[in-house]
Design brief:
alpha/beta; 24 helices; seven-stranded mixed beta sheet; RNA-binding; 35% helix
Amino acid sequence: MKPPEKSKPSNFVRDIIEEDLRLGTHDGRVATRFPPEPNGYLHIGHAKSICLNFGLAQEYGGQCHLRFDDTNPVKEDVEYVESIKNDVAWLGFDWGEHLYFASDYFEKMYGFAVELIKKGLAYVDSQSVEDIQENRGTVKTPGVPSPYRDRSVEENLDLFEKMRAGEFKDGEIVLRAKIDMGNANMLMRDPLLYRVRHVHHHRTGDAWCIYPMYDFAHCLEDAIEQITHSVCTLEFENNREVYDWLIGNVSAPSQPKQYEFARLNLNYTVMSKRKLLQLVEENLVSGWDDPRMPTIAGMRKRGIPPEAIRFFCEIIGVAKANSLVDVAMLEYAIRDKLDPVTPRVMCVLRPLKVTITNFPEDKVEIMNGPLWPENIDNDEKRPIPFTKTIFIEQGDFAETPPKKWKRFAPGLEVRLRHAYFIKCNEVVKNDAGEVVELLCTYDPQARGTAPDGRKPNGTLHWVSATEGVNVQARLYDRLFSVAQPDGDAEVDFKTHLNPDSLTVRECAMAEPYLKELKSGARVQFERQGFFVLDGDDSSDGNLVFNRITTLRDSWKKEPVKAAPKPKAKKQKPALVSVPQEAKVSQRDQVREGNPALAARFDRYQNDLGLSKNVADQLSGDEPLSNYFETLLASGLPAALCAKWLRNELLAYGDEGDLSGLSFGADAFVELLTLLNKKEISNRMAKEILEAMVKTGKAPGALLKDMGGGVIADDSAIEGIIQSVLDGAVDECERYKNGEDKLFGFFMGQVMAQTKGKADPKLSRDLLQKALAKLRTE
RNA sequence: UGGGGCGUCGGCAAGCGGCAAGCCAACGGUUUUUGGUACCGUCAUUCGCAGGUUCGAAUCCUGCCGCCCCAACCA
C-alpha cells in the first residue's frame, strides 16, 4: 500500500490541459506523444520529455504514444528504435498499443500534399539548393518568390507524381508550401514539404524516394494520431506558425496544438547528440553506455534507478526559461530513492592493514550486521567474519589528525562497525615513510558499546583481511570539471574533461556476503556510497562494482569559511539616456505613413495636454487610436479616457488589439461616464470592467447587480473593518507584533467584503486608525 | 523587415492586483554504532532596470537593458 502520491507540481502545460479539460476543448481527451527520431541514443534530456508526456497522459487519464519520427532515412536506423523502446520501458513507461511510426503515414501524407497542391497552396520548385537558400532572404530582408512559384495546379500535380515515381534525382526538385516569401518568420517563407532521396528506408524499404520534411510531417502525424497536446522543446517555437498553417489548410483529422518547454541543461555535462557522439567515437568514454554518460543507457549501467530519474524530472519542473540545472539535484534524487531501500554492507576501497595484537591468531569470530536501514521493518542480518588482521580505509587513519577528526589516529580508540572498539598503539611504516600497518588492541568487552559507557572517536567500516573478498570498485565522478563545458564556442568542450572522472580500485576488499549478490543489485558501502554490481563486467571470481553516487559528506577537510562575500549589491546599470530620436520607433513609422495619425500625435500633446509617451502610444496604431477617438467623442476628459484605455482596457486586449472584446467602445464610454460622475470608484470601475469582459453586460446593469454605489460613510466602513479584524485573529496578532506588511491583507479584505465599493482612501484612513488602536491596546 | 521567446534567492521554480510557496545547495542544531538517513531551524523589505496607473504592483500600461531561438532539401 503506497501512501497517496503527493500531487505533482503545477506547470504551465498542466494549466493549459486543465483549462482545456474545463472547456471541453478536445472532447475532453488528453493525448500526448514522445516522438524521437531513431538516429541516436536517448539521454536525460529526453527523459524529461518522456516523463512530461507520459506523466501528463497518466495523470489526466489519457494516452501517450511512442512515435518514431522516421522521415529522414539517411540518418535513421532500426538499431536505434530498439534501444529507444528499451530505454523508455526501462524508465517505467508503457505505450501499450500506441507504438507508431511516421513512415506508416507516408501514403496519407502524400494525400495531404496533393490536397495542398489542388488548393493552390503548394508547388513543385525546381530551383537549385543554392537558389532556394539565396532566395529565402535573411532574417533582416524578405525573400523573393521562386520562378516556379506560379506553376499551375496541373503541372504541380504532374511533377509531384513524377517526383514520387522517381523521375528526379536527389536535390533536383522539392515540394514547397505556398505561404509568404516575405514573412518575418523565416520558417513561413514557403517551407519545403518534400525532398527527393533515393535511399532505402529502414521500414518502408524502397517504396518511396520522396520523404516529407519535419514541418510538414510532424503536425500531420499528430493530427492523424489525434494528439491533443503536442509538447516539444523551445527551439520549435518558430515552427508553431507553420504547424498551425498546415493543420488549418489541410483536411486534418484533428486539431492538435503545439506547446513548447525549455529543454534540460545539466551542469558539468554535455547533452548534444553530436558532442556525445564525439566522446564515443574518440574513445574518451567506453561507449554510449559509459556510466559517466548522461545517456539513459549510461545511467542504467551506472546503477541509477529509473525512479530516481523520474523523481529528478519531477522536481526540476517544467517552464519556458532556459536554465541550467545543478547535477547536485540529480544526486539528491538518486540518494533520496536509494537510501531508504538499499542494503548496507562494508567494503574497504583503499585497504590499510590493521593487526589486532591481542586477538587469537586463527580465530574467526562471526559478527552479525543488519542488512537493512532502520526505516525498513526487516532485521535480516548477514554474518561478518572478524579476524586478527583486518583492513580499514586508508583515509580513516591520520597520523596527525586535524581538528574535529572523528576517525582513527595514534593513541585513539574507534569502534569497528558491528564489532569491537580498537585502539591504535603503534604505526608501522615502510622505507618510504608511508604508513603500511597499524598495530592495535581490541577491547573484548567493548563490542558495539563499551560497558563503562565511554565513547569512541568514531565508527569505521572494515573487512577481514583473511576472510574478505577482493573486488573491483569503479569510482565515477562528473565527466567534466567545469560547470558549462560547452559554454564557450571558442574552446573545445573536450579540454574540460575531468581527468579523475573514473578511478578504478582493483584491490578493494569487501565482506564475503557480497558474493551472494545478484547482478544488478544495488548496495550501500557504508560511509562510502551506493554501488551496483555490474553483471556484465563481473565474472565468477571477480566482482565489479560501479559507484552510483557518493554519500553526502558534511566533513570538510579544511573548514574553509565561505569567503564573507559581501552580498554583492546588484550593480545598477549606468543610466544611459538614449535620445528618443536615436531610433525610429515602430509607431513613428506608422505615423510617417499616416498623416492623420501624425496630426493626432500633435493634437494629443498640444490640445489635449497628454504626455508625449501617452500621445505616442495612442497615435501609433490605427485601430487603437480610432478607439481613443471614439472615447474622446463622448466629451469625457481626455486624460481619463487615455488612462483607462491604456492602463486598464488594454490589459484585456490581445497584444493591443481590442477587437476581440465582447463589448464596444460605447459600453466603455458608459463605464467611464459613471466614473466621471463619481458614481463609482476606480476600484468599482475595475470590478465592473472585469465583469464586462466576462459577461459582455452593460456597466449600468452590472452596477445594479452590485447593489449600489460607493460606500463612503464612516460608520459603515468602520463596521466592515471591525468585522474584518474580528475574522482575522491570527493576522491581527501578527500585525500587533510588527508585521506592517499585513496592512495590504486587511485592506484587501475590506475591499473584497464590499466588492470594491468601499471608498479606498477613506477606508485606508479608517483602517490605519483601527490598526493603530489595535497596537496600543 | 526582422520575427518569436525568456528574465523571481547561489541553482531549479510557484505566483496571474492584497502576507514573496516549495525543492536543491549552503549554514546552524537534535537524534544516530554510517561525518549517511530522519527531524528542526536560518537563508528574497524584494521579483532585469526605469517611469506610469492604483488605497495597494512581481502581477496592469510604457520605455529601456540582458540572454535564447530562427536564414539544413536535419529534427
